[in-house]
Amino acid sequence: MTPTAATPWQFTDSRGQLVTAPARPARIAAYIQAGATLYDHGLRPAGIFGSYHDGPAPDPAKAGSLPLSEVAYFGAGQALDPDAVLAAGIDLLVAVSYGGSAVYGMEPDTAKHLEQHIPTVVLDIGQGRSLSEVRDTFHALAESLGSTEPPEAAHALADAQAKLKSLISPTTPALLALSPADAADVHLARPHAWPDLRALTALGVPLLDPPPEGGANWSTVPWERAAGLAPQLVLADVRANAAPFEAGRIGPDVEVVPWNPELPASATAHTAFFESIAEALREA
Q1: Range of the domain at 261
Q2: Whole-angstrom distance, CA of residue 234 vs CA of residue 16
Q3: Any alpha helices (H) in 53-183, and if so which ranges?
Q4: pLDDT in tens, 173-215
Q5: Taking a C-beta distance cutoff of 8 angstroms, is the pair 31, 111 a contact?
Q6: Within this chain, do residues 175 and 114 fall inside the same structural domain, yes or no?
């Protein structure tokens, strides 16, 4: 739908809801991953918030290129302060969901309260969306807000994907994506559940499947069982909520690639991700 004089700004989010504002929003509060994505598109949010996994300070691993010292942090999960968001004069809230309409990382009552006062866009980044679909949705939102990534970002992404695909052969080692839980257990990622991992699979990169038991996104197993999968390459979660990864728990010759499961949904960030995998495969 084209904006009219009566609704100068509008955007249809992943819930199918038409979000409108009397003028193009300029002061944006966003979930940290969304804020990092918008920053890659030339938009610096006025503030960010985290999830239940996050603490009293923003997680640098999730922040991408965001200048955290210049962006307000409204808290995370139950500690998110809706009054601080309202007092900051925010005119657009950008949240994410993992399927459905529930806002990720925010108390339902808090999300409802904020949406009653601030136009709220919720973008689905879950397993029902491909990496390119997530990226395109954020791109469309940024364009509606008057900014975008430079054209060369898309060219760099296409080049990175092509180079990665060219490295794949029958002898390419399979990757294991994981998030350390503690000294006893590790969460093994299900490749089909994560848009970035599915994108690797689509390019031919082999990924190891974890045991079937467990949740939709992860299978939590003892470290010994993970080592039994004998991976040569490991994608290790670098977010603050993950325990430190010790390569010796998996095997003596494992190469480790840092992995952010909440990667900014921009061509810039996705290019860096594909390039890191390509470099690891070249060295393997």
Answers
A1: 169-283
A2: 37
A3: 82-87, 108-117, 131-144, 151-166
A4: 999 999 999 999 999 999 999 999 999 999 999 999 999 988 8
A5: no
A6: no
What is the SS3 assignment for 269?
Answer: helix
Q: Which residues of the chain have pLDDT under 70?
A: 1-7
Tokens of 176: 């294991």
pLDDT value, residue 269: 98
Q: 131, exposed or middle or buried, with CB in 10 Å at 0-12, 13-18, 19+?
A: buried
Of 72, 60, 57, residue with least CA distance to 27: 72
Tokens of 272: 């860096």
User: What length is written for the chain?
Assistant: 284
Task: Write down which residue in 129, 144, 159 finishes a domain.
Answer: 144
Tell me the CATH number at 34. 3.40.50.1980
Q: Is 94 exposed, middle or buried (0-12, 13-18, 19+ CB in 10 A)?
A: buried
